[in-house]
Amino acid sequence: MRGSVTVDHTAKEISGVPGRYWHALEDGRIQCDVCPRFCKLHNGQRGLCFVRAAKDDQIVLTTYGRSSGFCIDPIEKKPLNHFLPGTPVLSFGTAGCNLTCKFCQNWDMSKSRKMDTLADAASPEDLAQAALATGCRSVAFTYNDPTIFLEYAVDVAIACHAVGVKTVAVTAGYICPEPREEFFSHMDAANVDLKGFTQDFYKRLCSGDLDDVLATLKYIHDKTDVWLEVTTLLIPGQNDGDQELTELSQWFAGELGPEVPLHFTAFHPDYKMNDIARTPHQTLLRAREIAKTAGLNYVYVGNVHDADAGSTYCSGCGIKIIARDWYRLGEWNLDATGHCTECGHKCPGVFDGPPGDWGQKRMPVNMKKFTARAS
Question: Which of 156, 249, 368, 375 has its CA 20 to 30 A from that of 217?
């Protein structure tokens, strides 16, 4: 298996809902086929992601309906700058991850091996109703990678779409072709972490495979209607060299095109990489210039305060069409369908009427009252 890590999570008691992507091996083990890690498990063992396990000669998802918490965020925090700007999004994650990123900035959830991390619970219908009741235009699967809780995410997406709420996946894109097709058929938007642009980076720091992530990016762009944005966290001395950034930007321009937004965000010391300093602001601006030189029209910087490099400019006439200061929107020069009011050029994205005014608020949600209401 590519990017493999030896794992033997064994538990005496495992419960969960049946998974959809696995097959039995001749030696009696069960192989999980959700991601390219292809964990091969005896009954009672968990995969590296921790949330998918072998039980009764099948793979089960142990975190269905459970979450580490629910919160309303600005959609720009995902980050999505061209998808219903200014609107609130109901965000949640579970536990576990299928990568082992040493720089993980949500490690308390994604690296959790404790079920008591999952203090909250909600059915798909509860989540859809909570989004409606709180005025959220979308629900985001985030904080940890939703591909590992695919069955739950898909059911939530179906319930959301039934009541007119859109869905957002924040993912590393490390998923196999068949589950990838099902998963993204239920998503309206995605931000994919392109963590670096060398196989060495993925293998050494994430125990993953670059080619699998690039295949996911190409699939989303070429084969779906999902609105796509991409984020690369720049880590000093690891993935921020001019050559790597040039190769990333040129691949991006050639394979995804100039209209897909790219976010360069700043690293801060965390998890197993506390010995590396924060990303200098100038590094982000250098990366942005390299990407723009490669032909990308919408390149942003994040995790730093930079209203200029966080705003959107018309690729037709160059005027500022969406001003952003952190997650607050300011000047707005688009019509209701996303066309520049100066030159009429269409800004790529999902625009539906005037911008929202949620701003930079972050509001925890007590899901119990919506669960009680539904029951």
Answer: 156
